[in-house]
Design brief:
CATH architecture of the largest domain: 2-Layer Sandwich
Number of domains: 4
Number of helices: 19
CATH superfamily of the largest domain: Polyphosphate kinase middle domain
Largest sheet: 11 strands, mixed
CATH topology of the largest domain: polyphosphate kinase like
Amino acid sequence: MTAKIATLDHSHSTPEITSDSPKRFINRELSWLAFNQRVVDEAMNEAHPLYARLRFLSISATNLEEFYMVRVAGLKGQLRALVQSVSQDGLSVKQQLDAIYADAAKLIETQQDSWKSLQKLLPDADIHLIKSDEIGDEDNAWLEGYFTNDILPVLTPIAVDPSHPFPFIRNLGYSIAMQLYDPEMQRSLIGLVVIPAQLDGYIRLPDHGEKRGRFIHIFDLLIHFRHMLFPDFKMPGYGYFQVIRDSELGVDEEAEDLVSLFESALKRRQRGMVIRLTVNASMPDSLLDYLKGQFDVSDEDTFRLKGVIGLTAVSELIGNKPKHDFPPFNPRFPERIIEHDNDCFSAIQEKDFVVHHPFESFDVVVQFLRQAARDPKVVAIKQTLYRTSKDSPIIKALREAAENGKSVTAMVELKARFDEAANIRWARDLERSGVQVVYGFIDLKTHAKVSLVTRREGHELVSYAHFGTGNYHPITAKVYTDLSFFTADPTLCKDAGILFNYMTSYTKPSMMQKLVAAPFNMRKTIIDLTDKEIELAKKGKPANIWCKVNSLVDPKVIDKFYEASQQGVKINLVVRGICCLRPGVPGLSDNIQVKSIVGRFLEHSRIYCFGNGKDMPSDQALVFISSADLMPRNLDHRVETMVPIENKTVHRQILEQIMVANMKDNCQSWQLDATGEYNRIKRPGPKLSAHNYFINNPSLSGRGKALRK
């Protein structure tokens, strides 16, 4: 199976590309679409259980919606503004949009094909989808009661005329449009029913004997009872549709009150320009033309879909039958904490340790902050917050700490995309408890994941730090692979304090000794470390770079990797999502390999390793964990951290267990080639899934057997 990226050259031969050719880069947007194609391919993967395949399909549909809301909306805005600049791979805005439309159409077709295949398997899990013409008398009586009591009261059927204008349709909203004819007045109208977001996509019917697990789609139910929506009209035609609006927040101006600014921007988001209109294939042409006129969309922004609109809702069909899901596992709580009688500070003081989520429990992070909140010796807590859960134990711990009289500072980032409203709500909750809330910068996102606890021990103050690659979010920590690094290293803790001072006072962190931070010196550090590998290669010594990131886009880093490859540096990259680097191009990137892992968990941890004159893996390698991907937005427009791992045990755990397992994975891995295509890795011999390996070997305590490349 192959996931393709649209490029100007669709041939399977290696393109002739030089170090100054724009085609040395793969287009960012098309690379993202290729990633989402790999997600859809997992929905087609027969090795996965049914529920997992449904999740992959739903995730891919959600991903595509967000892609249009942000990336496509941004490009269309550039097109309207007559922007003449080209992408780093040499494509104009129009060329990018044309290529996106072509690849998105293929992706949508694959999603529908996947759904058709999965529907055939649903009965095996007692999931049965019925159409309105399959409803019997007994079911019809129940459905009519359900429709009358639970659905009709929240609907507002509108017959459009001068006194009832076309209503506003919210972003991602689903609606039904109907051609109506009033026989009494002998006139034709357009009828609209906007489906509230609170309604489920699939309604489950009651079980009757052998009739179990039956569902009907909300569209089919509304059409079945259309006579109750417009009882005085005939309905010669109808159709379903969804709109996607421009949802990127434009917050560039100065603001006295950043919270008020974002509240206003969030209201504008829902009313953004429609950039995509999706309708069912059988919608009458005249009805479609009417909608296109109302939303002011062109033919290229209109999709007639031969299939189901709203595949995000298929996750609602997932039940609780274990045999149709991934085998459950219980994340292990770190033994280090248990051995110290659940005293986080004592465990950290003994030596640094790392926790590997989701294989090891996120509860240790919660316990670290909860203990800090209740410990009378703790005098101060500083915390960054980018995303967290609705009922977050992290927020509760910070509030408790403030209520206990401790000095608590929370750096809250309001620009966490699609979580802005939630962040405003719990930021105000923190303030009510006495937490000193500081909001992120206007021109930078605070994306670093840092906790700093200061404790009075004897006659001195001792600090403890947590650095993470993921968010302080206990829900996503169950499905994202991330690292939590705990340390009492005085220098790292001091550096963390300097970084917090920058975030609260604009004092540039020029005095940090170990911690690397964007937007100050992260790109320079990565390039300098790559230059050292180049010098080693020139001297005939082993030269190696291993990186694990979510995205690789930054042209300066990519060009430096190309230079390193040409000098003989061996570079192995695990890039889950977007990758703009072309590996394996003769004379340019012969020594670079790129793979992507897409599986049960979302690969999210960022790890940077430099061989330092030894073959990998090596005790001499320089190892860092980071909150940042290799993208211009991370390196130039965000506050990020890159943390050196100096403790030998933690170093070995990250390099010889995590990185080697990722390199050796041959079950969920895709190899990127020079033409821009991803091919699923199928190698003879023993199979190794990195995810299954860590489920079965969750301990990163140092006692576990290290993998060797």
